[in-house]
Amino acid sequence: MGGGIARWMGELAQRFPAGTLVVSTGRYDAQSIADQHFPNHVDRLPIPAHRLRTVQGMVLWSRRAATLARSLGAEFVWCGNLKPAAYPARWVRQRLGTPYGVLLHGGDLLILRQQAERSRLKRRTARTLLETAAVLVTNSRWTAELCGAVLQEIGMPLRQGLIQTVPLGTDPLLFRPGLPQAEIRSRYDLHGRRWLLSVARLTRHKGIDTGITALAGLAAEYPDLGYAIAGSGDELPALEKLAADLGVADRVRFLANVPDRDLPGLYNCAEVYLGLSRLMSQRVEGFGISLLEAGACGVPVVAARTGGIPEAVRDGESGILVDSDNPDQVAAALRTLLGDRSLAARLGAGGRSAVERYYNWDRVSADLARLGRNLGRPALRTR
């Protein structure tokens, strides 16, 4: 599955010590191939994953989760999201007393805030799911502050230690500098230019339009500069039209269906990575895994000063932070990096160092495993 949340869940299933985690989820394409690569068991319900949100799906999932928890003697349940995963987790807690924690991402809290404002039922339901959780884990301090504000808005008291922040990471062995570029450049027609890069869904909040506009502003000054965007989404026609209207259609490459195995090489083809997500009513970058992937490859980043991005990209250390709706400011930052290669190299090295030191999946998995052990049922922890 695409997207940062799916990446996070997959890395946990991969990196929790073998035999200490069981994943409960629905069916998904190519599941039999993917599941074989995990050291921890993936238990799939006989319905598609997207149908777990239905009433029938949640009832089936809740019963299966309770059976798993009972047979395994599970000490703790992690929910990859609030809805629908917290429903079966709460079911298990009510019947077996097994505590649970919810992983929160940013956009989910913005959606919850709007739903709670419009519906008393949704507000009450959300409060029920959240107040019985042992811990709420956020991906950044920004998301943690948003979480606290939303809990107050739905009338839920904040108890000590309820909200914990576990910043995300990436894989420094997979994403690294110095990888061969020739095959990737040929596969995606990237020869003959220096490239800006974004890896993102083509949705309005990702700010790809700002990147294209900034590229147009630099076109005369940097005739060999192009912009590669790896991703797909509903905004593609509008972005293609924008590039054509600004006269840079020949400099923009929209790369759909780029497999994960090509991403490290693709990052290595970039001069600068652009992460220009804007804050919208229901969308935000709670952290930004692709920003770390670029940094791990030694690529300097120009990123938006919104959401949790400033925690993934340290201004002046691993990149330059800008206003995501100001193409001139983005162009100025790019001009600085393209004109000062020593600065670009220093920021790229800073991103790489941060991933090696702290922002990696091994540390994320260890943090969550420790939380689960500390909050799990005492009788099971001492067995």
Provide the descriptors you would attach to this structure in a database record.
383 residues, alpha/beta, Rossmann fold, six-stranded parallel sheet, 17 helices, 15% strand, globular, disordered C terminus
Helices, strands, pairings?
Layout (H helix, E strand, L loop, with lengths): L3 H12 L6 E6 L3 H5 L5 E8 L6 H18 L4 E3 L6 H11 L3 E5 L2 H12 L1 H12 L3 E4 L2 H13 L9 E3 L16 H6 L6 E6 L8 H11 L6 E6 L5 H10 L6 E4 L7 H6 L1 E6 L13 H8 L4 E4 L4 H4 L6 E4 L4 H13 L1 H17 L3 H15 L2 H4 L2
Parallel strand pairs: 1-2, 3-4, 4-5, 5-6, 7-8, 7-10, 8-9, 10-11, 11-12
What's the gist of this structure?
With 383 residues, this protein is α/β, with parallel strands linked by helices. 46% of the residues lie in helices and 15% in strands. The protein is built from 17 helices and 12 strands.
Descriptive account of the structure:
There is one protein chain. This protein is of the alpha/beta class. It folds into two domains: 4-169 and 361-381, Rossmann fold; 182-357, 3-Layer(aba) Sandwich (Rossmann fold). It contains 17 helices and twelve strands. It has a six-stranded parallel sheet, sandwiched between helices. It has a four-stranded parallel sheet with strand order 3-4-5-6, with helices on one face. β5, α7 and β6 (163-165) form a beta-alpha-beta unit. α5 (107-118) packs parallel to α7, α9 packs across α14 and α12 packs across α15 (341-357). The chain is globular, with a radius of gyration of 22 Å. It starts with a helix and ends with a helix. The relative contact order is 0.12. Mean pLDDT is 94; it is low at 379-383.
